[in-house]
Amino acid sequence: EAARDAGLLAPDPSWPGGYRFTHALIRAARYDRVRPRRRARLHAALGAAILDEYGEGRDLQYLDGAARHLCLGARAGTAERGIELARRAADLADASGAADLAWAHLDRAVTALSFWPDAPPQLEPELLVERAVQAEILGESERAMADFGQAFERASDLDDVHLMAAVALAGREGAGTNRSKFWWNPGRAGVDRLVRSFERLADDASVQLRLDLQFSVGADGAPYLGEAGALSWTVRAQEELDEAMAIGSLSETDAAGLRLTGLLSRWSQERPADLVTAFDDIVDAERRRTDVIG
Asked: Closest by alpha carbon to 185, among 250, 106, 256, 265?
């Protein structure tokens, strides 16, 4: 009450019964005076109190508060729970179009991870990819590509080839999440990640993964590998796809989707005069794929 009467605190309209500092400078001055360990304990206690009072439902307002405080309290032992809730809150924020809020949750989760020594090793690259996608949605391409690159190198350090491939492909898809772009390219580093992933695949890797990587290099590689080099990846992938279809090692749904991927790869390499024909083929392939899915 004394802080409120002194004008330091005011009711927070976004949080029933809650208060906020009336000025950011007041908050910073008070917050910075609290030692890090005590600060972490206070955040952990606040996060636990929110969960006790409001539970873990899908109300973004309360989930947002619990996740934020538990991540900020990671030093006090709440990292695992905070990261779990931060990812859930980020998913809800993303679904509601609040990419800035989703990015903030994932950023706190990445920071909290350093206080969870027994975390699953693949969690760091997974979080980095999730944060990168939100950064790309916000138009922060350089920040996104840095996260994709760090995630890939971490997966490589773990010698997890399938995780490397997943990160490489996510980097390619992430480069298209900014809706202002009609066509995109993951850049030289992104193409290099695709190539490195393919080269590390074992002989018994799934046909689906092999083809996804090869077609992606074919679609994006021309600026860095040359047109002939990129085309060679597409041709090789198409030959492998034809062989897989001939021996029935792909489901009809997967085969239809990969045919579409191959056409998109070819479309990125065609000259403008041939684009209409390529586009018609793409539309026809997508129609057949939709018919197969039902």
From this structure: 265
Which among 186, 191, 236, 190 has a CA at the least distance from the CA of 210?
236
Cα separation, 192 vs 232, in Å, equals 16
Count of residues in the chain? 294
> Helix crossing, 141-157 with 161-174: angle to 10°?
170
Rounded Cα distance, 217 and 215, in Å: 5
| Tokens (6 digits) for 233 | 């990846």
Per the CB < 8 A criterion, the answer to whether 88 and 47 are in contact is no
The whole-angstrom separation of Cα 265 and Cα 281 is 12
pLDDT at 276 over 70: no
- Which residues have CB under 8 Å from 193's CB, separation 6+? 148, 149, 152, 164, 167, 168, 171, 186
116 in Cβ contact with 83 (< 8 Å): yes
Angle at which helices 227-247 and 207-220 cross, to 10°: 160
Task: Note the pLDDT tens digit of each residue in 74-123.
Answer: 999 999 999 999 999 999 999 999 999 999 999 999 999 999 999 999 99
Residues pairing with 9 in the sheet? 21
Euclidean distance between CA atoms 217 and 233, whole angstroms: 7
Interior angle at CA 272, CA 269 and CA 275, nearest 5: 75
CA distances from 259 to 234, 256, 281 (A): 11, 5, 10
Tokens 């990015």, located at residue: 103
Q: pLDDT of 35-70, one tens digit each?
A: 778 889 989 998 999 888 877 766 677 888 899 999
